[in-house]
Amino acid sequence: MADPEVAQAALERATEQRNLLLVYQPIHEARTRKVHSAEALLRQWRESGEIREASVITEAAEEGPELFALDSWCLRTAYSDAAHWQSHGAPDVRINVNLSPREFQEGNVHSRLQKLVAGCGIDTHTINLEITEVSQIEKPEETVEVLNELKKLGIELWLDDFGTGHSSITHLQRFPVDGLKISGEFVKGIVKDKRSREITRALVALGHNIGAKVVAEGIEKKDQLDLLLEWGCDYIQGFLYSKPMTVDEFEKLLSGERASRPQ
Ligand code: G
Ligand code: MN
Fold first, then answer.
1. If we measure between CA atoms, which residue out of 152, 35, 131, 20 comes closest to residue 78?
2. pLDDT tens digits, residue range 115-161?
3. Rounded CA gap, 170 and 163, in Å?
4. Ligand 1: which of 22, 44, 159, 239 to mutate, most ligand atoms within 8 Å of CB?
5. Cα gap 163→199, rounded to integer Å
6. Ligand 1 site-directed mutation target among 24, 59, 159, 217, most atoms within 8 Å of CB
7. Does the global pTM surpass 0.85?
8. Is the CB of residue 177 less than 8 Å from the CB of residue 128?
């Protein structure tokens, strides 16, 4: 685990000077379009007032102790936002947080998560953790133990960008996976390209056959959605339904949904 003082200094630099924020991209139930959860994505305010990707920051943090500070900041911010919308009439809307594989090996993630959750007053089962670079996990047996401990808290594990280089079938065999997120790279071709279509259809079935839920990412068109519905995909994320939005916009979306629901 990183030296806490170093991590704290890094956190301050990252959050105060660099104007970080989280945006939320809704994940919808495929059939009903109801909001199921939201993926928290790190962004940065520009001086012009625009919001931009924060990849420069995340790449810089990847190797050093800043990573833990940054992840803790993301978790704390996401939890307090989720606590807010849960106490304002959306008790079941979960939150997906992206975590680096380093967290499971060096980051003491279990106790940090417990402390963070206790500080925000939300249930641990509000959280899904998304791991993208699962292939970089160097100590799989230890990681499986950590993941099983997290699952006892009700936290779900989702494999992100499933089917691409970093996240493959090997990892399904090894890790206690609750959900698969099928990369938009497959989804974008499913209408016109027979191979993309058959691969994506097989990935949805694969997820279901091992008892996992399936999210398709990057849905931009209605005819893509129609195919995914035909195959029984559980959730969808993509510009067709929602772009990433600020927490205020997300909470407005939730209240609009509640207002339109029959009493
Ligand atoms: O790797 P990950 O799935 O976490 O990446 C999510 C990114 O994909 C976000 O930055 C988001 O802006 C982008 N994204 C989300 N939905 C869509 C979509 O429908 N089309 C495209 N092109 N990008 C999307
Ligand atoms: Mn993700």
1. 20
2. 888 888 888 888 899 988 777 778 888 888 889 989 988 899 999 99
3. 10
4. 239
5. 9
6. 217
7. yes
8. no
Q: Model confidence over 163-222: pLDDT tens digits?
A: 887 777 888 888 899 999 999 999 999 999 999 999 999 999 999 999 999 999 999 999
> Which residues fall within 8 angstroms of residue 184, CB to CB, at 6 or more apart?
216, 217, 218, 219, 238
The ligand placed nearest to the CA atom of residue 37 is 2
Task: Please identify, by atom number, the ligand 1 atom nearest to the C-alpha of residue 239.
Answer: 19
DSSP 245: B
* CA 157 / ligand 1 centre spacing (Å): 19
Q: Residue type at 194?
A: K
Residue 40: strand, helix, or coil: strand
